[in-house]
Amino acid sequence: AADIPDDLTNVLVTEEEIDAKLAELARRVDADYAGKNLLLVGVLKGAVMVMADFARHLERHMEMDWMAVSSYGAGTKSSGVVQIRKDLDTDLHGRHVLIVEDIIDSGLTLSWLLENFEARGAESIEVLALLRKPDAAKVQIDCKYLGFDIPNEFVVGYGLDYAEKYRNLRDVAVLAPHVYS
Ligand code: PRP
Ligand code: MN
Ligand code: MG
């Protein structure tokens, strides 16, 4: 965190903190899914880093699938419309699904996904999210495996983008308002 580019104001969660938290969550998931055939569903594109690191902390077998949805486009506010860009390859009927997300902001993406997956007949559906913003409290989403509650700032890095940039930053950092205002 020594060299922060001037389009970021500060680092909110470091690479080391993320790694330690994902390891801790993986221990819980290993225990909770004992004897079950776990399917991780990563929500593209933001969840790629969380998925890659979390899955490698698991000791149990799992299957991995991906769904690409987008509600933000190039802006900083949710459009309110969730679009499927790529659907799952897996039949969810009877499956134990763990949705892997980078962040819950308005909660719109996840409430939509939860309803959608339930309709496909999943046996159980839980949510793992690295980050959660305060607005998420307005919608009823039970996030069983949560990394960090963060303040209501526009964050980028570790998968999170602004206009498709910054996803490859190792830390989660706050985007300087002059970049998007
Ligand atoms: C972001 C983020 C979450 C969602 C959270 O995805 O990765 O999936 O928004 O916001 P919400 O709780 O208000 O719905 P985005 O739509 O930007 O697509 P991306 O993952 O491809 O960046
Ligand atoms: Mn996303
Ligand atoms: Mg995005």
From TrEMBL:
It holds the Pfam family Pribosyltran. SUPFAM superfamilies: PRTase-like. GO terms for cellular component: cytosol. Keywords: Cytoplasm, Glycosyltransferase, Magnesium, Metal-binding, Nucleotide-binding, Purine salvage, Transferase. Its main location: cytoplasm. GO terms for biological process: GMP salvage; guanine salvage; hypoxanthine metabolic process; IMP salvage; purine ribonucleoside salvage. Signal peptide: none annotated. Pathway: Purine metabolism; GMP biosynthesis via salvage pathway; GMP from guanine: step 1/1; Purine metabolism; IMP biosynthesis via salvage pathway; IMP from hypoxanthine: step 1/1. InterPro entries: HGPRT, Hxn_phspho_trans, PRTase-like, PRTase_dom. The keyword Plastid does not apply. One of its GO terms (molecular function) is magnesium ion binding. It is found in: Cytoplasm. Its EC number is 2.4.2.8. It comes from the Bacteria. Its cofactor is Mg(2+). It catalyses: IMP + diphosphate = hypoxanthine + 5-phospho-alpha-D-ribose 1-diphosphate; GMP + diphosphate = guanine + 5-phospho-alpha-D-ribose 1-diphosphate. CDD domains: PRTases_typeI. Belongs to the purine/pyrimidine phosphoribosyltransferase family. NCBIfam families: HGPRTase. This is Hypoxanthine phosphoribosyltransferase. It comes from Microbacterium sediminis.
